[in-house]
Amino acid sequence: MGLARSSYYCQPGGASPEKRQADADPRDRLEEIALRFPRYGYRRMTRQLQREGFAVNHKSASGGRLMRASDLLVKCRRKWLSTTDSRHGFRVYPNLCQEVTPTGLNQLWVADLTYVRLRWEFVYLAVILDAFSRRVVGYALSRSLEATLTVAALQAALADRRPPPGCIHHSDRGMQYACDEYVKLLTDAGLRISMSRRGNPYDNAQAESFFKTLKHEEVNLTEYRNLEEAAGSIGAFIEQIYNRERLHSALGYLPPAEFEHNLKTARQRVLIATP
Description:
With about 280 residues, this protein is of the alpha/beta class. It is built from ten helices and five strands. It has helices at about 5-10, 15-35, 40-50, 65-70, 145-160, 175-180, 180-190, 205-215, 225-245, 255-275; strands at about 110-115, 120-130, 135-140, 170, 190-195. The protein has a five-stranded mixed β-sheet, sandwiched between helices.
């Protein structure tokens, strides 16, 4: 009928016509946002509505009454599956992340991989994130868990960002990150190698958090028929939605690309103002 879902929940009695109209506008937009970002919680939903000019707060509007009335409050299932094989003869490097808090871009990269379920098989996704901006700077998808997967993601990140010498690359201690080919790429680029403690995914929490977002907002909502279809959809989610549109609480509720743009703009202003 072309009506918003909020029309179903509208109660004719109780609230005044003015009050119902005031609720209807943000509720309609809230439902549109929820279709694009199905796992937005009330905090991100509130910030997105505020960015668009709606006078809402997280208690009375998106966080409580409106999201609950439209049954949009997120109910997440927790699940963790290891894809790390640390039983190998390659060198294991110490964890440098425990001593470092990045203050700018390309100071600390975090890398990890996960599985993606297709209709008849599994494929694997490797990603690299900038720990300061949370932006995905390199990724690759493959049917194989061999080192060619992580190498492809690293090559993409190096080509895109050209990090300065001394940037820390942190990963788990799996064979895909400890093998000779991967380590050579890191050392040739001047990156310092850091690895997590054995069996502790929380040492790489930022990458784990990204995978949780990816699974809840893209992978678990889509049935991919083949590798090519998965690569197209996941690539679009990473490049357009996650990097450029999705609000990140650790960045003051800005998308990573906007956060990085603001950093560069502020730096240029400082350089111009410096005599």
